[in-house]
Amino acid sequence: MAPKVPKAKVCINPRPSSCPETSEAQNPARLLNESGLNIRKKRQLMKNYVKERAAHMVDFDSEARFIKMLMDLSNKHRKNLGHYLSSRYSMINGENVTGFLKSCTYNGEDCSDPSLWQTLFTPTYGNCFTFNSGLKNSSVRTVTVTGPLNGLALEMFLDQGNYMFNKLSRKAGARITIHDPYFLAMPNEYGMDLAPNTASSIAVQMNEIKRKPKPYTSKCIDNWEEADYPVPKSTNYSLVLCQRLCHQSAVVSNCSCYWPELYIPSISDTDDRYTFNMRPCSTLLEDNPDRVCYAETIRQFDTLNRTCPCQVACSERQFLSSVTVATWPSNQYWKYLALDIGTYDEDDINIPGPRGEQIKKEIQEDYTRAEIYYQTLNIQSIEQTAKFNLRTLFGSLGGA
Questions:
Q1: CA separation, residue 194 to residues 79, 199, 345, 360, 370 (Å)
Q2: How far apart are CA 180 and CA 236, in angstroms?
């Protein structure tokens, strides 16, 4: 049987989490106790620490305010504010704006048609685009040949010139997730980063896991009805999604708002069911009742005073990836890429000088490539079986 092509979801990567981290080795509170530091050095160290912490809080709260304003909008308006898959005309700029996807080929054929892609919104990455999704009753592709020439090849425009200011865009690149066509993608948990000026070769092998339901020890779940969450039947059950729904519904129940970092994207522009018809919580660090309520709710789960009705899935497909990275475009190819884009003058590209170097720098900063393909068609299957069935049970009883 030919394995099904996995679903690939790519997101532009303009804004990582701004949560500050301070290791114990860098914490001045511990260094103050060290006898090797004089009083002046200790005072300066503490002054720098307080200043750094204050700056981190400002950065975090800037992102918190932005996310709050963004999540107050409808799902449709949030998508309209994000990057588009293909080029479009901008009423504000009065010109065509380059889309996220510069080129796409699958099995040697063009796949850049927007109808082949599904757009989902996430608070962290904005608009994400999914190829080969089975969530909208579209046909899922199968593959019978391995290797990069028979897989999915993407060239993406990162558009760093339009990244957000105010420290909201700290990383450049894109994020890609390889997953089951009938699962809802989780780029935060399962994604991998694609850096600018690189070509990533992602070789995939599929694993299948089958478990036994109750009364066997795995106590696996086969569908969403058993977990009692409002997920469309076209979406396969997954433990990660179930846990996120569980935590989000608990926050909604306790705090009368939904936590943006637990937001689950909806397929439809009009059906934003995973917000539970509630307002988004504020994620500000200080003087924020929403954050206090959220922290207390999650603490109930951490201390096992509250649990989720979630178990592992009875049937699960995993796509294990092996990634290699090369520089792209090369010193020879960038000129052809710049000409193919069509926004640069041919003389500026070919004549040596500062303008040509500037174009080369822009190409290196704004483009990345990824190739996703099956490394082998062998499927590793892991199946849980009963230690005793009816025949082996009677056989083990013995007798004359």
A1: 22, 8, 28, 19, 8
A2: 9
Token pair 């509250």: residue: 306
115 CB burial (10 A radius; 0-12, 13-18, 19+): exposed
Is pLDDT larger for residue 24 or for residue 108? 108
321-358 burial code (b ≥16 CB/10 A, e <16)? beeeeeebbeeeebbebbeebeebeeeebeeeeeebee
Distance (Å) of CA 233 to CA 117, 132, 237, 239, 328: 20, 18, 9, 15, 41
pLDDT of 310 strictly over 50? yes
Local structure of residue 281 (DSSP, 8 states):
P
Residue 304 has pLDDT above 90, yes or no: yes
Tokens for 287? 């003087």
pLDDT of 165 strictly over 90: no
Between vectors from CA 321 to CA 105 and to CA 174, what angle results, nearest 5°? 60
Task: Transcribe 164-204 into DSSP letters.
Answer: -TTTT----SEEEEEE-TTS---HHHH-EEE-TTEEEEEEE
CA-nearest of 341, 134, 102, 95 to 234 is: 134
- Contact at 8 Å (CB) between 9 and 130? yes
- Under 8 Å between Cβ of 182 and 234: yes
**pLDDT, position 285:** 86
CA distance 103 to 171: 23
- For 83-96, the pLDDT digits (tens) are 889 877 655 555 56
pLDDT more than 70, % of the chain: 82
Phi (first) and psi of residue 176, to 5 degrees: -125, 140
For 68-79, write each residue's pLDDT tens digit.
Answer: 888 998 888 888
